[in-house]
Amino acid sequence: MSDLVAEAPELSWADVVARRVExxxxxxxxxxxxxxxxxxxxxxxxxxxxxxxxxxxxxGLRTVxxxxxxxxxxxxxxxxxxxxxxxxxxxxxxxxxELPLWTGALSAVPAGGSLSAAxxxxxxxxxxxxxxxxxxxxxxxxxxxxxxxxxxxxxxxxAGELVMPAFGGMWPRWRQAVHHAAHRGVLCxxxxxxxxxxxxxxxxxxxxxxxxxxxxxxxxxxxRYLWAYGPATPQQFARWLAAPxxxxxxxxxxxxxxxxxxxxxxxxxxxxxxxxxPPPASASSGLxxxxxxxxxxxxxxxxxLLFPGRARERALARGQAGNMPVVLIDGxxxxxxxxxxxxxxxxxxxxxxxxxxxxxxxxxxxxVDRIGAIQExxxxxxxxxxxxxxxx
Length: 392
What we know:
With 392 residues, this protein is an alpha+beta fold. It has 16 helices and 16 strands.
């Protein structure tokens, strides 16, 4: 790979931003009624859904006429989307048909974590809890307490010991295996039961489902990541997955014949070898409002180019992207924003980091109207300082 790296061409940041914006569906939102929700979600390698309303907005903004109702229909009626644990152990939406890929890849990522030895389960205990979760959810949708009772009944009282600090209280030991169960394909989210989340088995939606073989799944995941977020380094891929950097570097070396090195801002990064598409004809993508945890910002690097100047101070939390909704201008973060809902009224405050031209102001008005339509609310716009801090 060293000879190829020495000859790697330099790419301009403007061209890189233009290709990412286009591939994320932010340059020209997808048309179609109903909205092509699974395709939109697949193109950005999953929609972060720790806050489901933010995921609904991420998806809706990448369509021409889609609303939050389209996302909910795809999740709970059509079952073309699945809500589960994705990269970094965080909640994501994925196209249901892509679940074999995601489970095959994520289950092969080396486990990390910061739990103490007294709290952490052994590999054998984790396997036992994952198996118990699979048995309990095979034909049911259970809230956390019900699932915990079933797990403890199968593997023993040790799994129910309250040892994990969480949200001001203590969680039972077995809950550290929930995202492992999701990554191994035996758990996903079911429909809420009142104010409580439920878990169920994806096998109920995908009969015959099984994770893709790890090597094939990881190779395809790298290809898709580079398509949406490339060029990127192994270290950036590792950060996106919350995986060990050395493991990611070794993975990229093993895929050397499928990768093409380039240079971006003086650093060697990679694209998929078969990704020879020219940059979009126009680098301008206009003004876009992206919600909390939108995939474009969370997966995008280098941070210093994507979040330049004041954006680094106002839109990042200790270097972490996604904790503030952002204003994109031509694919780069140039402001932050906030929304507050009261009934069907939606108050939107936008804090731009530069003066908005008349054309940009029209685009902003259009984005605010679009956000209102997606969320089935009546929006108003105020330009000024956003009064809230980053999402925890």
